[in-house]
Amino acid sequence: MVAVPKQVAGNSMLGNSSILGDVKCNSYLLFHGETALGNGLRGFLYFLGLAYCFIGLSAITARFFRSMENIVKHSRTVVEVDPHTNTEIIKQEKVWNYATADITLLAFGTSFPQISLATIDAIRNIGNLYAGGLGPGTLLGSAAFDLFPIHAVCVVVPKAGELKKISDIGVWLVELFWSFWAYAWLYIILEVWTPKVVTIWEALLTVLMYGLLLIHAYAQDKRWPYISLPLTRGERPEDWVPAEVASVNCEDDIYDSIYRKVPAAEDSVESSNRPFQKEINLEDLHVLQLWKKQFMDALTLESPESRKLNNAHLRVARILWQSLLAPWRLLFAFVPPYQIAHGWIAFICSLLFISGIAYIVTELTDIISCVTGINAYVIAFTALAAGTSWPDLVASKIAAERQLTADSAIANITCSNSVNIYVGIGIPWLINTAYNFITYGEPLRIENAEGLGFTLMVFFSTSVGCISVLVVRRLILGAELGGPRFWAWVTSVFFMLLWLIFVVLPSLRVSGVIKYDIYLYILDLVFPST
């Protein structure tokens, strides 16, 4: 029997969507009874749900970042022999390299929603000759959100007058190159080599480029000869994130209190053949105490600081806000404390929660498109891109707040854009192209690939504007983030304006307002056909 491919162009499961109020949308989130409500009310409720998911993503991303800090802080004991004195020198060495941590733990972790959702979409789409809905267009929207709004937030995060600069320009330039190359490579695949289709070899090369990015960034960080750029590295702190005295003291108090509660008589009853049993039990008690504290904090609606406030209205507002956060905080309290296994268990659990919420966000944006009649491509560029990139924003904001340099905050932006293409779209393409090649002997077709040229042109143009501003700030102010409050806000507004341009122009193109392919006209002027 010969397998027959499903030639389904598109992957819409939205029901009947049209202009708001004209056609009833049959899609729903939880219950079929939702369809009985008016489209206007449904759209409002779904937008509220979307905003509440963003709040949840902010909360779990903060926990994800803390677990990642613990992973990066992990060190190992290295024994070296002094060649002159022949004595052993014992020192502690960091397990994780800064550049590798930024590209893998930070960028890969915050991009995990896009990667997991696109992979799930590819698995559900197996057997179709056309790629699923989470394709290049959606990831371009996510890339633009990473580049413009996140830079806009990070530049105003430092305190007034505080400057935070990139300490290793060489690594940043390497990451920036691979970020831009990712989208140039996307254009080459879809418009030059094999227009509107993707072959298995193109998909495989796309995934392998993530490994090349890792190797190149590591080589630049270590200043390998012939591969790295001859740029000196500025001063950077020994620790990836400075230790927080308050939180450490709090945890130490819990740890000490556990030891004080252990009766001294236990020393006499310990078996001589189990000398470490007491220490193991105490460590277990420490972890359980921390886990218990997570649940207690989640159920506490008013902190001691709030009780000290003299303004009753402000206290009530804080209690209401904590009540709104309580369901998320209680849910995330099930994530094990980040002190376990150097933070790896909390890291993985946080990623699972992030992916779950991101999946709900994509479902909500699909239904919002159906209910309101807004073009799905526009939804992908705005709400869906913001939803899946929200962890990127929160992680970069935390890095800009807590780190002494701007390296990780900006590296998360550039590297996330690379990960979105090399992994977020490379793995789904590899799954679908491999299946189609083995089963049907056919490549993977991309729907609406011709519109990507215009979108990529707008993206590259606005990206140049963004990077140019960062360079100018470095030359004039001496840092990419922070500085005088006025100029920080001017920069932030400019970045948001670039994002608005990126969103509006492709949206008008998709909606048919821009009828002519401007990018083809420009290419014809630059490279006239003979």
Integer average pLDDT:
78
CA radius of gyration is 26 Å
| Order of strands, widest sheet | 1-2
Low-confidence stretches: 8-21, 244-282
Largest sheet: 2 strands, antiparallel
**SSE-based structural type:** mainly alpha
SS strand fraction? under 5%
Number of strands: 6
Helical stretch count? Answer: 19
Shape: globular
Termini separation: 49 Å
Membrane topology: Multi-pass membrane protein
InterPro entries: CaCA (IPR051171), NaCa_Exmemb (IPR004837), NCX_ion-bd_dom_sf (IPR044880)
Domain Sodium/calcium exchanger membrane region: 46-218, 343-505
Organism: Gossypium hirsutum (Upland cotton)
Overview features:
globular; single chain; 6 strands; 4% strand; two-stranded antiparallel sheet; 19 helices; 530 residues; mainly alpha
